[in-house]
């Protein structure tokens, strides 16, 4: 038995090494891009500097719009935090956090799922962004984006972003394991179950740091607190959405009243007030093995993250 555990541990270490080696290769490719001819000479040495490139829509809101003096500094701070924490290409997580930041200061926004075209040579790809006062706002930091793509997005905003519903029949197909399909599943998860997605994302160290940097920003600049993860996420079965009967005393009376009587079931866990947790992420919980298996096959096998995970580049359609 001990030998089997040791083999599993070695396999995990090898897998981690491969992932980090891949990231190092991708990082070197990004560095080489700084010499690309699409950049003017005075910019090539500052590939990752967030300067005037991101002061126009869709990266910023027009100064003529109400609340622009609150929105643009927030967007700028967010981009810099993403850069500092090495978070790249995760529009679902970023859009959700910015949406909640704006919500706390009374600014309405909508998190939108759809497709984005970054230049005239590529096809539309899955993406998530915000709509504020009818304006498309894309706050996702992309480490290796080139200036031509930035300019293209700025000059063709309404042609580059297309809101659409995902093909749910594809999302539920267990055999659909292509990177593009998995990336779409991950993004739509932030739309369908934002609190579940946020709770899982905070297992990743860099995302945790970014999230609390945004909390600190909102407190220091607006004396406001971001809406956290819905406490029911800790108790609910992530697949059938039922609750353990023993957990009633741990959920506020207001929330209990919103839960139908037939949603309360007995827990098979030794602690009757909660269900069993996923052993890897320790966040998702399930009332029985059947629900855990079904959720794993549909989405959790992609979104599950162990606590304290080191930030890895999110799966994207470009990955092999």
What does this structure look like?
The chain is built from 12 helices and 8 strands. The protein folds into 3 domains: 1-35; 49-222, no CATH class; 231-303, no CATH class. Helix 3 (68-84) packs antiparallel against helix 10 (205-222). The protein is globular and about 55 Å long. The strands form 3 sheets. Strands 3-2-1-4 form a 4-stranded antiparallel sheet. A two-stranded parallel ribbon has the order 5-6. A hairpin with a 7-residue loop joins strand 7 (276-277) and strand 8. 45% of the residues lie in helices and 9% in strands. It has 320 residues and is α+β, with helices and mostly antiparallel strands.
How are the secondary structure elements laid out?
Layout: H1 2-33, H2 41-44, H3 68-84, H4 91-104, E1 110-116, E2 125-132, E3 135-137, H5 147-155, H6 157-160, E4 161-163, H7 168-171, H8 179-192, H9 194-201, H10 205-222, E5 243-244, H11 253-257, E6 264-265, E7 276-277, E8 285-286, H12 289-303
Parallel strand pairs: 5-6
Antiparallel strand pairs: 1-2, 1-4, 2-3, 7-8
Helix pairs in contact: 3-10, 4-8, 4-10, 8-9
